[in-house]
Design goal:
The chain has 237 residues and is of the alpha+beta class. The chain has six helices and 14 strands. Helix 1 packs parallel to helix 6. The chain starts with a strand and ends in a 6-residue tail after the last helix.
Length: 237
């Protein structure tokens, strides 16, 4: 049973439930970019993200990756485990794009083999700065063992997603992951969706993610709908 709102972020709202070990995560139609400087609303955006996230989290569970996902209770709401979030955003990069190109001498579209793993300190106050293992340890964000586990799990997730999306004519240049502690284990939390991933059409290179909104590349809802059509075609029947 949904109880009081626990947290409202840029695109999702999290609620307490009558089970202290479970939360309800609601996907909204809100859009933000550039640290909240650009904002908007997009109809059905929350629906598409929720359905994509549910499908990909289920895929990972089926492949042996433990996640916080339990079930969908509506088109835009999922029940998740109440994890202790580790304040590290893990960015997995397979193809150079975005800030990697702006900050380093990479060319957009350059393949990264092996993939690059980047850790950012999850803190709006500090602007989500990039950190290394030494900083993570000094801040007490995670133990050395946990950091090793996070790296291993992130790379496993990447392999699974790249293969799965390739079969759906989608490239995965980069994506963000968050992890949490649950009953003594490190598990995947948050979402995997058009808000947290770069998806490119494998044939045309067209952006099918939040970059459409960031850089005014066209119809964001159409882009999210197209990704949903490839990943969760059953919702269109």
């Amino acid at each position: 049973m949904k109880l009081l709102e626990l947290y409202s972020g840029k695109a999702k709202t999290v609620y307490k439930t009558d089970d202290p070990e479970k939360l309800i995560m609601e996907f909204r139609n809100s859009l933000t970019a550039f640290d909240g400087k650009k904002k908007s609303e997009a109809p059905k955006k929350g629906y598409y993200n929720a359905q994509i996230a549910a499908k990909l989290l289920t895929l990972l569970e089926d492949k042996g990756i433990k996640t916080h996902f339990n079930s969908m209770i509506s088109d835009t709401e999922m029940v998740v485990d109440a994890v202790d979030i580790i304040k590290i955003e893990v960015i997995v990069r397979n193809i150079a794009a975005g800030s990697l190109v702006r900050k380093y001498p990479f060319k957009t579209g350059q393949k990264l083999d092996p993939p690059i793993l980047v850790f950012d300190y999850k803190s709006d106050v500090h602007g989500d700065p990039m950190i290394n293992d030494d900083i993570a340890l000094a801040l007490g964000l995670a133990t050395g063992q946990e950091l090793s586990e996070i790296r291993e799990i992130a790379l496993s997730i990447n392999s699974i997603l790249v293969d799965y999306l390739d079969k759906r004519n989608l490239l995965l240049p980069d994506f963000k992951l968050e992890f949490g502690r649950y009953k003594g284990k490190i598990i995947l939390a948050d979402e995997i969706s058009c808000d947290t991933c770069r998806f490119w059409d494998k044939t045309t290179g067209e952006s099918l993610d939040k970059d459409v909104f960031r850089f005014d590349k066209g119809d964001l809802v159409a882009a999210y709908r197209e990704v949903a059509r490839r990943i969760v075609p059953e919702i269109f029947k």
